[in-house]
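Protocol step 4 of 6: record predicted structures for both targets in the notebook before any analysis. Target 1:
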Amino acid sequence: MTLKSLIRLCRPKQWVKNLFVFLPLFFSGNLLNMPKLLGAAVAFAAFSLVSSAIYCLNDLRDAEADRLHPTKRFRPVASGEVGPKACVVLMALLCAASFGLLTALPRHQAGATAGVILIYLVMNIAYCMKLKSIALVDVVVISLGFVLRVVAGGVATGIFISHWIIIMTFLLALFLALSKRRDDIVIYNNTGVKARRNITRYNLEFMSQATTLVATVMLISYIMYTVSPEVVERFQSGLIYLTSLFVLIGLLRYMQLTVVDSSTGSPTRTLLRDRFIQLCLCGWILTFVAIIYL
């Protein structure tokens, strides 16, 4: 066992998912407010540590199945680089450090943020133990995890969270989770290896229809958000709808990678490697920055 294998077990690349805690700060126009930015940073760090603890539990529970997977067999626990006892100890330390970090926040905000992270922790323990084996429930739990990240960012900074951000976060996470499941089905069809126990309750036809449905609902919801009177009034701009272009193109690109290339088994890896999606994301962010902050 080495330090490198322990770091790999924590999956720090997956921490990019926890950037969702900054969304309330960004959309409220408080990104340059240092006290609130520090509060969001604390929430980000705490969520990153507790999510790494969940990855430890997940890898420990799935070690046997991971050994049959073409890529997951190289994970530290599945490959034998990290033993079960070390994995449990690391998981406990990560949880303790996560809640310990929250003491840096004001008392009320620390308590509320701790409550959100505790809900996330309990939900994901249930996911690792049982819920991940129930088709549809598994992707819903993943999506709720992203919603909790946004809620944590809101309570840690004392920023109101609109229903729009909750809806869009849930739909986006659900779309990504369904796309990831489709990749598992492709592996199962090609190799006969079950990446997860509920894989037989999904098939390519269902996943294609499900991802298309969620993508359509998400795009329509986003356009409704950009033209809603409350949003136009809040941002003092009628140009928010322009950002829909980047959302549409980004969705199409991701669906292309999913259906044509079957390469969305890891949404994080896709985000970090695909230049087209990165350009869409940058265009979306810069357009919002121009509208909100300039």
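Target 2:
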Amino acid sequence: MSARAAVLVSGGGTNLQALIDAAGRGEMPDCQLALVVSNVRGAYALERARRAGIESRLCLREKGESRESFEARLLDILALHQVDMLILAGFMTILSADFVRRYPDRIINVHPSLIPSFCGKGFYGLKVHQAALDYGVKVTGATVHLVNEVPDGGRILLQKAVAVEPGDTPEILQRRVMEQAEWKLLPQAAQMIAKELSI
């Protein structure tokens, strides 16, 4: 029995597409992409889910709504779809410790650096790549880790290094890290966790 995964997204869904493509190639035999949840209305990731035939749901945090209320609604959606594990793929909301405890060692996140460099609160998207360039590192990369109550603080599952090239901009570096690392590591890590849950 394959593990049912929900992919949580906030934007374009390039990492979601990498998961969809990997599943299509048979690289995630123990992981079923059962649901896509977005906290942003109109996120292109929802269109990617529709095209792939994956159920999707919108879970917006209403203006003035508490995090507890938002997370309670999200948990209801996940329970309704009998989700076993979560994949954060560009999900721009930090989940509370109470939420994370509901899925112990069952939530994975991809971060666009070699943790512990350029990670933690405030490091997301292009900000990570700008920081790497400002610091002058010659090698960056991506990390897939388990999610715990500390932002980017969970156990590392996989890492892959990517070279920083002369003339890189944050946008160019972001694309190279996605292509060479994120899109390869995330499906591998999803399969790893799903296989453990399926045994």
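Step 5 preliminary note on target 2. The chain has six helices and seven strands. The CA atoms of residues 113 and 179 lie 13 Å apart.
Proceed to step 6 after PI sign-off.
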